[in-house]
Each structure stands twice: as C-alpha cells, then as structure tokens.
Amino acid sequence: MEMIESLLEKKNKLAVIGLGYVGLPLALEFAKKFSVIGFDIDEDRIEQMKRGEDPSREVSKENILSSRIVFTSDVKVLKEASFFIVAVPTPVDALNKPDLHPVISATKTLASVLTFGDYVVYESTVYPGCTEEDCLPILEKNSGLVLNEGFKLGYSPERINPGDKQRTLRTVVKVVSGSDEESLDQIARVYETVVDAGVFKAKSIQVAEASKVIENTQRDMNIALMNELSLIFDKMNINTYDVLEAAGTKWNFLKFSPGLVGGHCIGVDPYYLTSKASSLGYEAKVITASRFINDNMARNVARKIITHVLRSTPDLTHASVLVKGVTFKENVSDIRNSKIIDTVKEILAFNIKVDIEDPNADAEEVMKEYGLKLTTEIGKAYDAVLITVPHDAYLSLEESYYCSITKPTACIADLKGIMRNKITQRTYWTL
Question: SS3 of 370, please?
C-alpha cells in the first residue's frame, strides 16, 4: 500500500516534530485528513497545546482543542508514526553562524524511532546540502536503514507568514522534493491534501533547500537597498517615502520599503547561504553587505533619536523616550530577534529613560528574553516617540494623541511612515 493511502485510511500516522509557528498550523491542517502526532521536547509547550493555547497567538483555542492531535514530548509515542515532518527552528549563534543543534537533535530523535518504509521530510530552513550532508548520515547510522531502500527522505520548505491571514498554508504553493521519484510522488500527494494552491516538484532536495533560502535573501537585499537609500536621502532632507511613492508609478519598480529586519527568517536565512558559500571558498559580497546594512539600521535609528534628544533636552537626567512596538513585525506577538531591542539598548547607554509598550507582546516573555520591562502607564512629556511597527492598534491614533504625551520640542520617529503627512505640531522623522 502506498504511503498516502495508508495515511488517508489512518493505518499509518503522521508526526510533526516542532510545534512552533510552522509546525502547529501544519499539524492542524494534516489532522483534518490524517491521524497526527504533535511532538515537541518543550514539555511546557505540550501542556499549552493540550490546553489549546498557542504561544504565537496565530491559532485559536477552539481549533487546537477540536483537532484530535496527540500532543506529546514522549519519544515512545513517535514510534507510532510512519511519516515524519521536521519543523524545528534553525537560528544563528552570536557570531551569525548557522546553529544546527535543533535540527540535528530532532534528527537523532527521529533516527531512534525510524523503521522500514518510513518517510522523513524536513521543513526547517537550511543551506543547500544540509538535509543530505548533515541529516541523512545520522538517520542512516542511528537507524541502521539505508536511504531509498529502508526509508525515504524529502524536503519541503515552510512558507508560513506570521500574522498573515490571507497567505496561509492552504493558499500558497508548496515546494516539495524527494530522494527518488517514488518519494517525490508520495510527498507531493501528502501535501496536496492540505495545500489548495498545489505543489511544485523541485528537481532535487538541494534545489528545494536553495529555493527557500534565497526567498528571504532576496527580500533582505531589497530592503537593504531601501535602507541605504533612506540613509542617503536623510542627509539630503528628502523623505524616502515621497521618493518611493514617485518611483512606484513605474510599472516595473519593486515596492519595497526601509525598516528594521528582524524575526526568524529574513534576518537569519541569508547567513545560512553565506556560511555555505564560505565553506566552498566563496565570499558572498552582495549578500554580506546587505546583512551589514540591515543589521546596523537599529543603531542608525538610535543615533537619530539620541541626537534629537541631546539637542532639545539639556538635562538628560529628565529625558525620556517612548518606544511603541517591540515585536519584529506588525500584528504578531513574536519578539524573537526583534532589532528594536538594539535601538533601545543604544538609547539606554546614554542614560536616557526608555518606556516600551506593545499591545501584542507578552511582558513576561520580553523580560525573560531581553531583560526589559513593558510599561503599562504612558507618560506625558516624552522627548521622542518611536513608532516601530504598524500594529492595527496604532493606525487609528491621531496627532493629538502624540501631542498629549510629548513635549512641544519632541520628535515623532515613525519607521514605517504610518503618520506621514499627519504630524505638523512636532518634529517628524521617518526612514
């Protein structure tokens, strides 16, 4: 019996390893068709799942509790599955080098339960070659099985966009790949059950890996160009968004905008590609330059705020700044790799008081991750307000609000331009 048929008839089970912003939605969709095991080594997360709580706030409690997924941190339960999907994080370390510990650890766990005829599909973002060069040897050695004879291997890059309710797992084409023709066919058919937009069969696992890593590398480079332009235009007292609006009237102008590049994808994935290139003796100059520009934008923003405060407030002991938004993008609760933290720390280094508020972020998580406290009381005399992300809660705020919480000499720094052409009674600045 084919794998897809055994899953549909629920003779075999599908397991999703890693229940983060990628794994949980994936498990929920597959649970509509198959018997699903949701596995995570974080026992607290498993307990949250059992209570119907999604830490990312992307999935409703009702959807989780009604899914009939078996949530577990017990490796023994994994033995009941025959089709495994790995959706664990692939971060970088303090030196921006790929940190494969989560995916290697998951691979070792998988190998311990792998049996004849099983399928293993990776969704974690990696550099081209990682699945076959780093993970496959572990699977074969620790399971005693041989690829394509004892088990099948595949790679299908995740394309989840946190906070996006339109472009979901079902509505975005899914790239799939396999270790041979049979695995490619079966993996494609499994994903076709939950992806209405259909699948694209990549020529090889490496092609699929490369397609994922360049998606975010391309975005990173285009944003870097916008950020560099904003630095240039700022010196010329030209509003970057005015320039982009004018240039955008041409049909082939790509509509990117400047901003801080954080999160777990765009600010991370390029390092996987540059690391692989370096191991091959090639220095990826353009990609590296883009990363340098984007990684330094947070400090450039801080310097702009600090300069304004120094000029308008002689006594820094009474100076204060309000930061509106600490998540890495709008309308999400995710604070991982939020670059605004770099801005905050730079301002604090000048002994300027900084209040941070965010209606979407969890205060305990912010304190645990960054040692920073979210404020619950907005002040009345800030020297600057920094609007970092266009949360829905911020879009309805008028100039009168900002005037009510700032000094007349204050600066409203609006990174995404949501108050453009609306601030007339305070100094206004945007990227």
Answer: helix
